[in-house]
Amino acid sequence: MTKNKLLIQIKDLEVTIDGKEILKGVNLEVNEGEVAVLMGPNGSGKSTLSFALMGHPKYIITKGSIIYKGENITKISPTERSKKGMFLSFQYPSEIAGVTIANFLRTALNARRKEKLNPLEFRKMLKEKMKELHFDEQFANRYLNEGFSGGEKKKAEMLQLAVLQPTLAILDETDSGTDVDALKIIGNTIKAIQKETKMTVLIITHYNRILQYLDVDKVYVMEQGKITRSGDVKLAHEIEKTGYKK
Ligand code: ADP
Ligand code: MG
Questions:
Q1: In terms of Cα–Cα distance, which of 93, 106, 109 is closest to 146?
Q2: Residue ranges of the chain with pLDDT lower than 50?
């Protein structure tokens, strides 16, 4: 597949939280079907960018724009963004008491579909997905994120990706707090979904270790609220060796 059609374009984005300027003119582009990686030291603004992309009301865009599929989405609601195929996984997902993974996924999926799936149809689909991904069937009956280990939270996110099949997945530190086995599952799941759906991925990470599972097209480095460097996967390896100091 040729990967030269723009999916998302972030132009000169400035974002404040509680009046404090965090992003100071971010420019970033991801083409359809690409895997782009966003790296950077702690506190540089990576999570802020992901929340701003999804339209979190606390993150105020004071300048610049977000163009998605050729449309300026800077001002539309998070729900609308999600309906257009944008998906954000959180760095710190919250627990939802009394809601099973399966019910959560069915509600989320039906919110995006015209033809709703009934519980039985959904179960069947979920079962197939879980089999493909080598997930234990019982996993979907657990309450969302309740008592989950780091790795299990991330696995639950992977299941969300597989079921919701977003056009653009923004994955914030999907690989942190996971052991090597969970990491492998996460990496391979992203790859499998990508192969099936041509999903575009913007992955935010500190580490190179997840990148071994993915074919990375682009690497961006964020420092102090700005993109300071960009390149291909070699840049990620260079940073692994030398750190963020030039
Ligand atoms: P990263 O994800 O790159 O580690 P963040 O986007 O989480 O960075 O944070 C960027 C900066 O914004 C940090 O200086 C952080 O202290 C600040 N920040 C993040 N969230 C808030 C908030 N809710 N209120 C005030 N400042 C915040
Ligand atoms: Mg972060």
A1: 93
A2: none
